[in-house]
Structures are given as C-alpha cells and as structure tokens.
Amino acid sequence: MRTRPPRLLAAALLAALTAATFPAASTAEAAEYERVLNGTFASGSADPWWSSAGVTNRVTGGELCAAVTGGTTNPWDALVGQNGVPFESDQSYTLSFDAHATTAQTVAAAAGESVSPYRGIARQEFALTTAKQHYTFTFTSTLDFPDAGNGQVAFQLGGQASDNTICVDNVSLIGGVKPPGGVPPTPTKKINVDQVGYVPGLPKHATVVSTATTPQPWTLKNSAGTTVATGQTTPKGADATSGDSVHLIDFSSFDTAGTGYTLVVGADSSFPFDISADGIKRLRYDSLAFFYHQRSGTPIDAQYVGDQYARPAGHVNVAPNQGDNNVPCRADLACGYTLDVRGGWYDAGDHGKYVVNGGIAAWQLLNSYERASRIGDASVFRDGTLAIPEKTNGVPDLLDEARWEVDFLLKMQAPDGMAHHKIHDAAWTALPTRPELDDQARRLSATSTAATLNLAAVAAQASRLWRGIDAAYSAKLLAAARKAYTAAKANPAKLADPNDNVGGGAYDDKTVSDEFYWAAAELYATTGDNAYRTDVTASPHYKAASLTRAGFYWGGTAPMGDITLALAPNGLPAADVTAIKSAFATVADQHLSAMAGMGYATPYDNSVDGYVWGSNSGVLNNAQVLALAHDFTGAAKYRDGVFEALHYLLGRNPLSTSYVAGYGDQAVQNVHHRFWARQNDPTLPIAPPGSLSGGPNSGLQDPVVQRLLPGCPQQKCWVDDIGAYSVNEVAVNWNSALAWVTGWAAEKSGKPPVPVSDCEVVYSAGKWYDGLSAQVKLTNTGTTPWTAWKLAFALPGTQRVTSGWSATWSQTGRDVTATNMSWNGQVEPGKSVHIGFNGSGTGADPTAFTVNGKSCKIG
After folding, report:
1. Cα separation of 591 and 612, whole Å?
2. CA-CA distance, 437 to 760, in Å (whole number)?
3. Is residue 515 part of a domain?
4. Quick check: is 649 in a domain?
5. Which one of 196, 457, 495, 641 is at 20 to 30 Å from 844 when CA atoms are compared?
6. CA distances (Å), 49 to each of 4, 85, 143, 646, 846, in order?
7. Which of 820, 833, 692, 755 lies closest to 348 in space, CA to CA?
8. Cα 582 to Cα 597: distance, rounded to the nearest angstrom
9. Which residue(s) pair with 578 in the sheet?
10. How does pLDDT run across 332-353, given as a tens digit for each residue?
C-alpha cells in the first residue's frame, strides 16, 4: 500500500486561525454523508492519512498513533492530515474523533484548502489527556470543494518542547448535501483509437461508443482534414466490461503512412494518430529507459535523462539517507549479520527493492535479449542503443541494464544461500520524498523460498547469456544459482510473511512449486545437468501444464520456465518441446476467441477476479504469450493479437487514455511515485515517457478510487491521480512486460530482420489435380550443430497439408510448420535431413523458408 501525499495548510493562514471561534452551524439540514476515509483504521493501514516532517504515523491497537518530535515552535509545524476531503460552501459539518496523548497536550483540528492559497475554513483547539476521550465540534464551510478536490482535514500537533505520541481513532466528518465523489478528471472520446499509431500492413481497428443498432458511416481524415477513406461501423452492442454500447471500425484497407489522421463519426472525432511504425520503435527504447530512472545507489545523470529527471544517488549513506551498505534484518528476526545491498532498481513508486518483483523484471529483460538473439534481431539492443552510462563498454545495453538488477539479487543472498525477500524503509515513506532525501532506517525482511528460487532462476539465465561475454562473471552467477537452488530445496516451504507489510508490500506467495520449476528449467538450460532435468520433468508444471489465459506474474512463474525450455537449446525430447510450444498456441487461440467478442479487444481474463492490481501488466504478459505463439507457428493471427493489446494500452480503451506516459494526446502523467510527483509538488517532474501505469483495478483498493469510482465498470476503474496507488502506480515488472512486448512488436514492424542464413532448403513437389506430394531437404549450412529445428513456410493457393513424415506437421491458414522428431533433431554442420508431406489443393511452390526463425537459401 502507498501513502497519500501531504498538501500542507499554509503556516501563515493557520497562525491567523489560532484559537478562532467557529461560525455558527447552518440552519439548513445537512445530509449524513461521511467525508473522511479510513477514520476507524480497522484495516491496520493509516492510508490516506499523511504526516509531515518530524511525525511518524503507525496504526497500533486500531488507532492512528503519531510519534511527534519535540522542539517545534508552532502547532502547524507537526501535522497529520487527509486530503481530497469534499466541502460545500454554506453547509454544516461535524468533525468528531477520539484521542489521547502519552503526555497531556493541546492540539488543534483544522479544515481548509490543501493547495495555494491555502485558505482556511475552521480551526479549534482541544486539550488531550492521557485518557482516551471523545471530541466533537460543528462548523459551516466557507469554501467549496464538492468533488473531493482540494479540501483537507488536519490535526496540528506541534509547538511542544518534548517528544510526544498522540493517538486518534473514530475520526468522522459528517455533513454536506452532495454525495462525495464526482466525475473523475479523465475526459473520454466516443471514438477510441491507438493514439500513437497503427503499423502499415497490419490490421487497424477502432471502437465507437454508440447506442445505434444500425451501422453508422465513418470517415478517415488526414492531417489537412481531407477525407481519405470511408466506411460503415459494425454494431457490437453492450460491452459489459467497459459499460459501453459499442460499434467497431475496421479501416485496415487504408495503408498510407502519415501523421495526424482522425476518425469521424457524425459530430464526434478521435484523438489524432499516425499510420507509422515509428512510435512503437521509439517505445521499444523508452520503455527500457524506465529502468535507468529507477536505479538505486547511483546518480541519475542529466546527460541521459535531462535536467528535470536528474537526481543524486539515493540510499548511499549520504545524509539524510541511512543507506543500503550495511542493512540489518528487522529487529524481530535477529539474523546476526548485515548486508551491503546498494544498487538494484526501486521496485515501484516507493523506495523498496523486492527480489520477487526484481526477479521477474530482470528475467523478462534477459529473455527479450535471448529470444532476439535466437530467433529475432538482437542487434537492436547492441552497445550504444540506450542512454545509460554503460553505453560504450562493448556489452549489449539491454544486458547492461539487466545486470544492474542481477547484481543486486546476488547481494540479497544470505550466507546460507537463501535470499532475503526484500529491503525497504522501516515505515512507509512520505509522498513525495526524493530518494536522496529519505531519512528512514532500512531493514531486510526474512529470507524466503520464493525469493531464493527467483535468484536461482535469474542467475542461471544470466550465466547462460554472459557465457560468451564475461566467463568469470558467468561462473560467479552460476555458482550463486546452484547455491540458491540447493538452499531452497533444503528449505522448501519458507514462505514470506503476509503480515510483513509495514513500509513495503508483503509479496507473500503460498505456493512455490512454480518457482521450483522455473529455477530448475533455467539451471537445466544452462548446465544440462541430469539432476535439474529430473526436477523439470517431474514437476506438475512440466510441458506448460500451468499456462492458462490467466497468464503469469511474479507469484505465478511456471510459464517462464516453459518459455526458456521452448527457446533455449536443451536435451529434452523434441516431442516435449513441441508440446510446450503447442500449449502457447492453444492459450493464444483462447485469447483471440475471447477478444473477438470484446468492445475493446485485449488479451485479459477477467472472468474470475475482474480487473486486478497491475492489470496492464497482465495484458502485456498475455501479449507475450501471443507473440511466442507467433514465433512458434508463424501464424499472423497471433501477431495481430499482440498489436491489438498495444492498441488497448495506447488509447483504444473506454477511458480514451494512453496508459504509457508521453505517448498519445491523453497520456497518463500523475503516476503514484515519490519523485515523479508534480501533482503535489510543482518542482518535481511528471512520469517520464515510456512509464506504464498499473491500469484498471475493479477491486478499488485505495481511498482515492473508493471515493471517485464507486460502481465503476471494470475497464473504467482507473484515474490519473498520484494518490490512486492501486490503479496508477508503476513497477519494474510492469515495465519489463512493456519492454518485452514493444521490443517484439518493433521487430515485427516494417521490414523484418534478415538474419545470417545458416540453412538451405530444397523443395520439390509432384502435383496432380487437387493434390501434391512434396519432398523437402533441409541442410545445416552453418558452423554449429542444430539440436532442434523448425521449418516454416507458406503454401500459396488452396494447398493444405493432409499428412506428413519425418516431422511433426501443422498448418494454420497458409502458414505451415514442420518440427523435428525425437530422432532427427540433431543436425551437424554440412548434414541434411529429409522430410515430406502429402497435400490437397492447388497452387504454386512456396517462395520463402525459415528454419528456427532464420531465412534459408533455396536450393
């Protein structure tokens, strides 16, 4: 959970209000609307109550207790408050609360404005004693903030020479005649498009909000306002997930590259968009730039991010930081040692660093590189492609960025081989707080099996990728991975404490068999050791048994093991690898089937839990499944599904909003972050381009959305507010998903890469009326053996494969694949394998072939 930002009442104004008598209550009868949130603290959380400098909030025994540092001059020098409180002018309000103090003290309660000019509404002093008492007073508002805008309630606790602790409970503000809430500040369009652009040559769809039951005429206009295409919408009717009645527009037939296009239906028009691959190619790199911004323990230099995002190093033992170089365990753990855990990425909008979140994020970046190096184009991540300090060290920049986190994971390994689950502040950090100004003590949480297996998996994966770059580092990684895996097997059920949620999220995980499978898969792919192979094949997750439309995430990691086993050469039976790849196509088909019925097509399964915290990362992880299905089969429908997911995230959604900062005319700005916090401090920046918002969360798990969005349709449970942490936070494992998918999509945009050919195909077919029998010879013309192979090509005309030999044959549309059998997957350089098939239909011979994703010469 995250803390609500303090917007403090101006000291000058409060001085003028000292001991003021409240105006008489209005004679008009007020409705019984509760105006403050979480006044009973029954959940154990203080949110959205904030505290000023010198005050630390903690919920103890069902009360909010504020530890106040003495030595302040004025009452308003120490504050506890809540923002976003709705007030209506000329309406009566009654504020009541229970309170007591360790030492008897006079405090004040104040109501007013949370932003400049900080106008006051009312203030009254109360003499607290050591015994809990009930206090109440009534006043009339002179200001109007009806829609939870800039109203504030605060307790003034300062002006005392000595330290003290003041506890409050049952805080209530009753009054007003309008219900709290109001319309979220996110204007919507009736025509929703990808505000960044549509790639030429690919499908182009938009969604229209309309209750009409018949097709409506649409017009596509260029930047000059000239009509360049027209058509009719397709009515789809009610869309339950968005709450909209919708039509669809398909303008795929128009394919002229350009900028500033708009779609028009009647009097309504869309946001402008491009027909171009440029936007997605830029996003490939901006999504990766996010990670440099999130680095801990190093200055973020203006030469890489610009002046507004530059900052000194955080948590490096420079005052007021207490630093990460000598961090002890939590006091109740008494582990007997400290660790130097400088570095790594800040996980999200706070200053915590988590192994299970960092693990999947680092894995996803590394997997993006491994996939590109095996079946794509890894040159796009070469040295010099990212704006980072390591851009001239001779190592691919994507690997450099991932290493910043991998090295941190190694530092989290305890002497016994286990890994600590997380490290963060002892209490929740105030919002905003620049990392270098964080003065809280840092603490290690306990080691856990899940964290240890994350370390084992990522270190083994990284060892594989660094083997040809830095042999010594590769060996170090593998040693750490082996040690971690051994320690996890010795401690197979050391689960993270679900109650360890003070100062950082708990990230508890009740099932770790998936992490065991993932780690064993990575270790086996790297080493080939039989012990790891046995653990892989004996796992209940083997052969993608856990891959469903629900996808994968930090707490469900088994499909990541499947991805590695499908991509990295290994000694598993070819039929088993084929089964894993087939599972990706099966689940991808389920996504496409569901997407066909959606008003805003997106690969997301909301059938059980609705839209959950970080739903946008779920969309992207499922888009990765679609992308891999395309890699494994060559079928265009899966590629198109990936782009549909990106269209949803970039504006084709019911909120007409791009969830990626800096991309689109209406893009997220006010993410929940302690440095990118312009919404509550104009000297700080908004989110940098390429940062992904968590997205809709129908659970409404923070007070801002609870107030603003009660009863929202699932896809509309989002608001661009810094305090709305359950919908608008950022996280490394969300941006890693964005980086993986946009890297893949950029590769598929425009001209495909042309890998160096290491194969030759000779194709010959005997044909007769409505039939053929084809012989195919594959030759390894490269310098390294093939341990497995997949041939892909397209059959022109009406030709269909009906049976085949010496390979596992499949066909989707015109796209045909042939995958090796268990006995002919090994093909040495210069050697050939002969396969063939019988088919029906007529047509010309194929004109292009790939083996393992690489174009082949035709013999």
Report:
1. 18
2. 61
3. yes
4. no
5. 641
6. 6, 11, 22, 36, 67
7. 692
8. 24
9. none
10. 888 999 999 999 999 999 999 9
Tell whether 322 and 214 lie within a shared domain.
Answer: no
**Per-residue confidence band for 604, with pLDDT thresholds at 50, 70 and 90:** very high
The CATH number of the domain holding residue 102 is 2.60.120.260
Largest CA distance in the chain: 101
* Distance separating alpha carbons of residues 378 and 372, to the nearest angstrom: 5
* Nearest C-alpha neighbor of 437 from the set 343, 325, 316, 307: 316
Q: Are 38 and 71 found together in one domain?
A: yes
Question: Residue 835 has which token pair?
Answer: 């396969």
Query: Of 503, 530, 546, at which residue does a domain stop?
Result: 546
Compute φ and ψ for 692, nearest 5 degrees: -100, 125
Rounded Cα–Cα distance for residues 646 and 746 (Å): 11
Written as one string, the DSSP assignment of 161-179 is SS-EEEEEEEEEEEE-SS-
Tell me the residue range of the domain where 123 lies.
11-175
Q: Which residues are catalytic?
A: 720, 729
pLDDT, tens digit (0-9, with 9 covering 90-100), for 524-577: 999 999 999 999 999 999 999 999 999 999 999 999 999 999 999 898 999 999
Q: Mutual orientation of helices 615-633 and 574-595 as an angle, nearest 10°?
A: 130
Tokens matching residue 219: 């017009």
Q: Is the pLDDT of residue 21 over 70?
A: no
Same domain? 32 vs 122? yes
Number of folded domains that form the chain = 4
Same domain for 169 and 196? no
The answer to whether residues 232 and 219 touch, using CB atoms and an 8 Å cutoff, is no
